[in-house]
Amino acid sequence: MANIIILSSTTDGFTPVVCERIKQQLATDNQVIHQNIDDCQTINFEQFDSIIIGASIRYGKHSKSVLNFIEQHTALLNSKPCGFFSVNLVARKPEKRTPETNPYVKKFLNTIAWQPKAVGVFAGKLNYQKCSFFDRHMIRLIMKITKGPTDLTTNKEFTDWQDVAKFSDKIKLLVNRSSQ
Fold this sequence. Notes:
By secondary structure, the chain is α/β, with parallel strands linked by helices. The chain has five helices and seven strands; from the N terminus they run E-H-E-E-H-E-H-E-E-H-E-H. The protein starts with a strand and ends with a helix.
């Protein structure tokens, strides 16, 4: 049984939903906790067999907290079977759902020294009503440009939960291999 921590960074609250699903899938064989990346300063990460980071995108970037954590813990992350996943609305398009085809994930991975053993890209949820006035209209403009939903009453989840399950299975396999 491995000891796993899932760290999340979110803008609109959906990334923790994905983290909890991954936690449920991993917890059948492992000890798993989920923590917001902004609230983990006192945690000793050496005690974990695997660290998974899930981060949302806003205006093309992951949060500074994610970058800071990775910079601070690169050596540790590279020494374990760790994973990273991004939650972004670009991934609502099937051709943008892989680490090789998602522009945000490609750019992110090229800017960090960490080489995650597993990488996932999941579409998030669009809920215009939950956004501030400014964000609502900026996201609507982006959706118009990218041929997404522009109706301001849209509240739609685009996540492919089978992809999330496959990512979880990959983490399980990596953790099992490293413990042998």
